[in-house]
């Protein structure tokens, strides 16, 4: 079962997508009142519900997993120095890989120019934006309002907010929000460091207990993974059934630009970093992370994927708990290569469509904003759109709200892809840091 897990998930994914296309074409020929049509809608609804339960169970173990793995991992680090070194290396790698991702996005969006048509702002896309906004603006009004509120913030506000999240006034409250894991991570790190300072007997006792608890939580992950093919099937079915339509076609060039940039980062840049910085064969690494990648793709949430990322990096890649328990939860929260790349492409695309010429300085501002906001974006579906609205508004690019509605309407497939890139980036960081700490990887593969 263990070896075949990724095949089962992949098969579920493909079968589900094919079935959704068939159901869509069948339902297109049926009258909405007919029993056949109602049956299909009912079936899709059940799938949506089953998918929801699958994601909820993955999310259920995030908080216990973060607390137990961070405490168990770091309390073995022997003191603050080891931890500070690990922290500096991890954050250094995150900054490097995210910056490279943004540059890849910048390069492709400028060369392909998906928002232009024969060198001019695309009228077709402008019209698509405004018709989508008038048709669906109402539906997304609460999301627009929320994104608009956030967009009032400056870069400095963002950094202040990040620090606020790092030091929550109430750790239980922070733990109750899966989008704000940063506070929980800080608390767990402090607890772990305190445990290393306790008298030996007490410290060992606590550390062992957290390790045992961590093993138990990992066991729950394994149980949930047994039903992953069903979960993935149920998640993909409604997504494919509901996608499609004209807007997708009109934004086709934009889609291709985002996908090409994500692919370049996933298949060239990150493997190169892995190879040159950790001497790791990228194919081995892809193999180690395949279940996590498929789950990230199906759920579009790096937070929900966290248990699988952790499992892949520890069990398959052989990264120690000491390194992975810190790099992986932190990465799922702050390191988002795919998201940063996407933000940059989306903002420049909208600027092209709206006919705004961006100076080099303005583009640099967008790069910095994408880097900062990707840190603050939560690991949940469509989270980056809020950041996109913020950058559009702070760069004075007109049409931010209409673009927001249109991008939200077609977001899911791109979200699935960028989430997989986000998760892969975290796993590369763990391997590179582990190697630099003298660990031997891939002993079991
Ligand atoms: N869905 C992404 C993630 O969970 C975040 C985003 O880009 O919207 O990593």
What is the CATH T-level topology? Answer: Proton glutamate symport protein
What's the architecture in CATH terms?
A: Orthogonal Bundle
Please state the structural category. mainly alpha
- Major sheet strand order: 1-2
Characterize the main sheet.
Answer: 2 strands, antiparallel
Q: Roughly what fraction of the amino acids lie in strands?
A: under 5%
Q: What would CATH call the homologous superfamily?
A: Sodium:dicarboxylate symporter
- By CATH reckoning, the class would read Mainly Alpha
Radius of gyration: 22 Å
Structure ligands = aspartic acid
Reading the helices and strands in chain order gives HHHHEEHHHHHHHHHHHHHHHHHH
Distance between the termini: 17 Å
**How many distinct domains?**
1
Q: What is the general shape? A: globular
Helix content class: over 70%
The total beta strand count reads: 2
Number of helices: 22
Uncertain stretches of 5 or more adjacent residues? none
């Amino acid at each position: 079962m263990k070896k075949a897990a990724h095949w089962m998930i992949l098969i579920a994914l493909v079968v589900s997508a094919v079935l959704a296309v068939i159901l869509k074409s069948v339902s297109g020929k049926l009258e909405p009142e007919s029993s056949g049509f109602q049956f299909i809608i009912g079936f899709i609804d059940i799938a949506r519900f089953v998918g929801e339960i699958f994601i909820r169970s993955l999310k259920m173990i995030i908080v216990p997993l973060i607390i137990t793995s961070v405490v168990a991992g770091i309390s073995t680090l022997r003191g603050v120095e080891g931890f500070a070194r690990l922290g500096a290396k991890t954050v250094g790698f995150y900054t490097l890989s995210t910056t490279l991702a943004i540059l890849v996005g910048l390069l492709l969006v400028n060369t392909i120019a998906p928002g232009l048509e024969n060198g001019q702002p695309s009228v077709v896309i402008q019209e698509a934006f405004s018709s989508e906004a008038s048709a669906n603006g109402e539906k997304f009004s609460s999301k627009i309002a929320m994104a608009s509120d956030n967009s009032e913030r400056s870069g400095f506000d963002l950094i202040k907010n990040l620090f606020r999240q790092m030091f929550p006034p109430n750790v239980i409250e922070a733990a109750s929000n899966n989008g704000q894991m940063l506070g929980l991570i800080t608390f767990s790190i402090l607890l772990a460091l305190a445990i290393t300072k306790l008298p030996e007997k007490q410290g060992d006792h606590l550390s062992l207990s957290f390790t045992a608890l961590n093993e138990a939580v990992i066991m729950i992950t394994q149980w949930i993974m047994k039903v992953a093919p069903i979960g993935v099937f149920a998640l993909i079915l409604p997504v494919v059934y509901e996608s499609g339509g004209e807007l997708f076609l009109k934004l086709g060039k934009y889609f291709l630009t985002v996908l090409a940039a994500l692919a370049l980062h996933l298949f060239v840049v990150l493997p190169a970093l892995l190879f040159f910085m950790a001497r790791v064969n990228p194919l081995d690494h892809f193999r180690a992370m395949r279940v996590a990648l498929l789950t990230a793709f199906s759920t579009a949430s790096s937070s929900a994927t966290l248990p699988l990322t952790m499992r892949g990096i520890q069990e398959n890649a052989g990264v120690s708990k000491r390194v992975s328990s810190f790099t992986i939860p932190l990465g799922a929260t702050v390191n988002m290569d795919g998201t940063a790349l996407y933000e940059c492409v989306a903002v420049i695309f909208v600027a092209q469509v709206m006919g705004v010429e961006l100076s080099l300085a303005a583009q640099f501002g967008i790069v910095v904003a994408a880097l900062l906001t990707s840190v603050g974006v939560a690991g949940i579906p469509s989270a980056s759109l809020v950041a996109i609205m913020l950058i559009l508004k702070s760069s004075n690019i007109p049409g931010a709200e209409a673009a927001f509605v249109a991008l939200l309407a077609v977001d899911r497939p791109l979200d699935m892809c960028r989430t997989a890139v986000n998760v892969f980036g975290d796993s590369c960081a763990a391997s590179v840091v582990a190697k630099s700490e003298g660990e031997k990887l891939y002993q079991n593969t």
